[in-house]
Amino acid sequence: MLKMRSQHVFLPLGIVNLLRKVSKDNLVFGREEDPHEFLTSIHQTLQAELLMRETKKGNKPDFCTQQTTAVGEIFGGWNLTVDQCQSCRLQSHTYNPISHLFVSCEVSIQCGIDRLLTQPEVIEDFTCSKGCEKTVCHRTTTVHSYPKVLKVVLKRFVSLKISFWLPKIYDG
After folding, report:
1. How is residue 93 annotated by DSSP?
2. DSSP helix/strand/coil, 46
3. Which Gene Ontology terms of cellular component type are present (predicted)?
């Protein structure tokens, strides 16, 4: 049987006291928060601090500078999105920076990652660059280069399209 004593409980007061500095608006003491939001707030705060040190006052850092900070070097990767128009078969390739993957894990995390990176997503009402309007597009996403540290965010909530009826309850 597990016996806990109050002197062995870890209280992260140092972290709690820094919440206002890490996240000015998002994180509030006493409210349940998502760990992903916490990590994102820390990354954004670190990134902003590093960019402020790298750039002169008033200048906005360019895209390359943003990607080459310590945060970008550790947590930054690239994904490749390929959209294929189903009318004309034209493919467009887009590279986007990533720091995490959102994975739906109904069976296992590995199955969720495999499905995310192998099953094409069907997009309705797509307009391709050739001008095909209101067509269907198949979008596949692959990781072009993985970050040194990859955050895998598990989708915990599934929206179900279920309709049901409730019986009327008569009083008296």
Report:
1. E
2. helix
3. cytosol; nucleolus
Strand pairing report for 135-145 and 77-85: antiparallel
CA atoms within 13 A on the CB side of 84: 7
What CA–CA distance (Å, rounded) separates 33 from 52? 28
**137: number of CA atoms within 13 Å, CB side?**
24
> What is the DSSP secondary structure assignment for residue 58, as one 8-state letter?
T
Give the three-class secondary structure for 172: coil
Return left, alpha or beta for 24; rule: phi > 0 is left, psi -120 to 50 is alpha, else beta: alpha
Closest CA to 151 of 33, 27, 36: 36
Each residue's pLDDT tens digit, 62-82: 888 888 888 888 988 999 999
